[in-house]
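Quality-control log, excerpt.
Job 1 of 2 completed; input and output follow.
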Amino acid sequence: MHTARVDFAGVDTVLFDLDGTLLDLAYDNYLWLERIPHAWASQNGVARDMALRRLAPRFAAVEGTLDWYDVDYWSRELGVDIAAVHREEAARIAWLPGARELLIALRGLGKRLVLLTNSHPVTLAIKDDATSVQGYFDAAWSSQAFGAPKEDPRFWQGVRAAVHFDPARSLFVDDSLPVLRAARAAGIAHIVAVRRPDTSRERRKHHEFPAVDGVAELLPGLAA
């Protein structure tokens, strides 16, 4: 496991994931592992501990596909208004430590900042209402716009056409190993993994890519 060191002199564009990279994944984990299964259990007369056991295979069946991130898909599948649940719990949405400060610092260095997220546009809008995160970026793209998630080569083909960045002079930061591998396959020269996307849990291990516990570590002197 090696800690990332980035020479920003060789980077023009920084591509950021959202959940687990800039925003605390604790919010999403709470929704999908507790709040939404509880709502489904209440509607179906199922015990709470049984709900997640029944839902887990349904979640796993579409993980890594666009449906996994689709608010409308899950509202239909579960009979739960997923967007409404997100809005009810929006007070839990939070920045990861130092993430906002990093964006400000990179802007000060003249870097182009692009947000690339699998978040559904509805979810992204709710998170933006809570954090104004999109205001820190030159552009923001949901994978829904390209008809494929970030794990899929088609996403990266779409991003290249829409954003017009030089992969050799770009940095991509994400917490998901399948997504990081897809970015590498797409030719992104500089890739960094986030080891602690959820502040309520232990850090992950990333052996394939240079990694940081949190994005504030990317700029010396920024991390506390």
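Job 2 of 2 completed; input and output follow.
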Amino acid sequence: MSFEERVRKKLRKKEKKYETEQLMKEKRSEEYEVLEEVFDRSTLMVIYDFMNKGTIDEIYGVVKAGKESRVYWGKDKDGKELAIKIYLTVSAEFRKGILKYIEGDPRFRNVKRDTRSLIFAWAQKEFRNLEQATAAKVRVPKPIAVRNNVLIMEFIGKNGVCAPSMKEQTPENPEKIYKILLKYLKRLYSKAELVHGDLSEYNIMIWKGRPILFDMSQAVPLAHPLADFLLRRDLNNLNKFFKKLGVKVLSAEECYRMVTGYG
């Protein structure tokens, strides 16, 4: 029996044990089988190692699926909900798209250009960005662990149901949310020394009445050659969305001065 087959057998054994113990309780998710069908040996080993260490105790359904990644709902050994983001083998188009964010980032200047190295760097980049944002008191999913193409974060939502994005659910108090987001961008810029780079109503969640930024993988440091352009684009996207909701937004230049402190 090959090494990979042994790993798969252990995953199946763990699943069967759980099903026996929980026979009269909520039915076990079938996501282990899905994992085995979708992910390669390296990814399976990372997940299995996280499970052995108790970082992940259970993996349930996919809560978000895209071409580049899938986010699974999970729990740790204490029952705390997790978001488990797994980056997939990417297309040439996605590889080309992420290069511009990585190449200008001094934190990753020595990354190799093969696909696997780039994906691992992309996961590390999101983890680092989440750490820096959290330290700057910007509300993002708290990072928990990362290895290779697997990133584990705080789950924003409850019982496997994600908090809605602003695109999915209009904020009840848009004026308040607009002001908070400008404050977040200022903290992100001045304290974390980052620019989100892809900010829009699609990647801002509303949870318990407050905004939470997510999809932080493309965020760049201020030293990145595209940082200024990306910041201005973020601010324009923000103004465009809230203006449609009737909010009296600041001008693009006023927003820029507020966030950066520059005239």
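Post-run check on job 2. The domain at 3-158 is CATH 3.30.200.20 (Phosphorylase Kinase; domain 1).
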